Amino acid sequence: MVLLLLLAHPASAGPWVRPQGEAYVFIGHEEGKDGWTSIYAEYGGARQLTWGLDTGGHAMGSVLGDPDIPLDGRIRVFARLPVLSSEAARATRPGWLSPWLFAVEASIGLDRETNGDQAERVGLGLTAGRPLDTAYGTGWTTFDLRATAGGGKRRRLNAQYVVGVKPTDRLTLELGLFAEHETDLSTTIAPTVEYKIGDLGGARLGVSFKDGGDTILRVGWARSF
After folding, report:
1. May I ask the CATH class of domain 2-224?
2. Element containing residue 31 per DSSP (H, E)
3. Which residues pair with 84 in a beta bridge?
4. How far is Cα 57 from Cα 63, in angstroms, rounded to an integer?
């Protein structure tokens, strides 16, 4: 994946947002029944807006009826809008910056703690991304920054960097670097493989390497509609 970054050179950039009427859904789980379950969805709306849902939590134990696993989690709905990404705006940039597309994001959400306490959250984010053309196939890279606050709790800062490549139409390889800071800083390195199974979508398998030394297996499914 490091070689991909070194070998990448600019390709024709397409629209950053979801096309109007198109939806994307991802469902994932890591570890066992006491692990984290995630659901992420995007929908392309009018006026170049992308609407989304980002939620996750330790919910598997409750689904399986295990009272010893407390329910907690987060839910966030957001709207994303491209900025400085028109053809005219990109034509005036320096050459090295021209392939990049940018978007801003606003969100509202709710955190639920294991003791039942809940806190409302509002957030703002910035996303930058560009396509890649490599010796191993077409790809992309994105960088996201997001801050959320509210509910009398500390501000939460999230950052992530993802690079991906498609060696074939069915196979996608990704490498993600994730960081979160609220009371402490936590970081994760997460390589992922996705294999498309016809019209059913893509089966995803990955590993998360946590900064505390934990190694966690992740499975998931993703599909565009």
Report:
1. mainly beta
2. none
3. none
4. 12
- pTM of the predicted model as reported, rounded to 2 decimal places: 0.84
Counting every residue written for the chain, the total comes to 225
> What 3-state class would DSSP assign to 169?
coil
Residue 157 has pLDDT above 80, yes or no: yes
Per-residue confidence (pLDDT) for residue 207, from 0 to 100 = 95
Q: Which of 190, 186, 194, 187 is nearest to 208 (CA)?
A: 190
The residue type at 158: N
Q: Are 108 and 99 in contact (CB under 8 A)?
A: no
CA distance linking residue 204 with residue 90, whole number of Å: 34
C-alpha span between 178 and 189 (Å, rounded): 6
- Where do we find the tokens 């992308």? 50
Question: Which residue in this structure is represented by tokens 């390889």?
Answer: 173
- How many Cβ atoms sit within 10 Å of the Cβ of residue 58? 19
Q: Tens digit of pLDDT for each residue in 5-26?
A: 333 333 332 336 788 999 999 9
N-term to C-term CA, the chain: 29
pLDDT digits (tens, 9 = 90+) for 107-155: 999 998 877 788 899 999 999 999 889 888 999 999 999 999 987 777 9
